[in-house]
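Why does residue order matter? Because the sequence determines the fold. Keep that principle in mind as you read this record.
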Amino acid sequence: MAGSRTSLSQMALLELKDLHVALEDGTEIVKGVDLSVNTDEVHAVMGPNGSGKSTLAYALMGHPAYEITSGQILFEGEDLTEMEADERAQRGLFLAFQYPHAVPGVTVTSFLRSAINAIRKAKNGGEDDPIPIPEFRKELLAEMDRLKVSRDLASRYLNQGFSGGEKKRVEILQMAMLKPRIAILDETDSGLDIDALRVVAGGVKELVGSEMGALVITHYQRILDYITPDFVHVFLDGRIVEEGGPELAHKLEAEGYERYEVKA
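Structure:
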């Protein structure tokens, strides 16, 4: 399958097979996508605004406003297509939002510990297996320092009153703490200054490896200056219209998407 280093005898960690996604009113947005992503791979999905990139991200994570009308999402060979968002997260999928929502009344610390414990419970056959508080605290503070997230944010309500940069850093902090197998980043670069972008991109880059792969969804090449993709997929009108290596991202930056729009 295009965009995978695996041989045909090996199944990729995440596989999309002829995926079609529609809105609740039946409008088709994603129109047949085939994509394979493994650990230790960075895939960039690049396209203009309105091309369906974010719809693809939300559909992968199981957002109820988007219906998978045909095709499959396979994760380690298991069909996730009918699963709820929390079940997908427990399997190892993670979505960093373009516009993270505030959660009044729930601190960053409480949110992260609850999320980690939910995953641990799912992996322990439904039996509670809470992370010891000293272990959690030690890991949280280490990751906050590494990602340059102010320790003050740990006791504040999730994303409430946070700057754009703080919200995005906390998204990557969640990723670092939850340790997903595949992380989907939906335009994580939007609204970030260069310093914040460098920190966020650096955090993603450090986490991608033998235990994690990433699907980076973006309009611009900017974030890819800091995270070099292994594969670039050009997304237009709900479809992948071209695939290549990192050089394709530079070509898009120089030439734009107009030549694809003529074909579409």
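The chain has one domain: 14-263.
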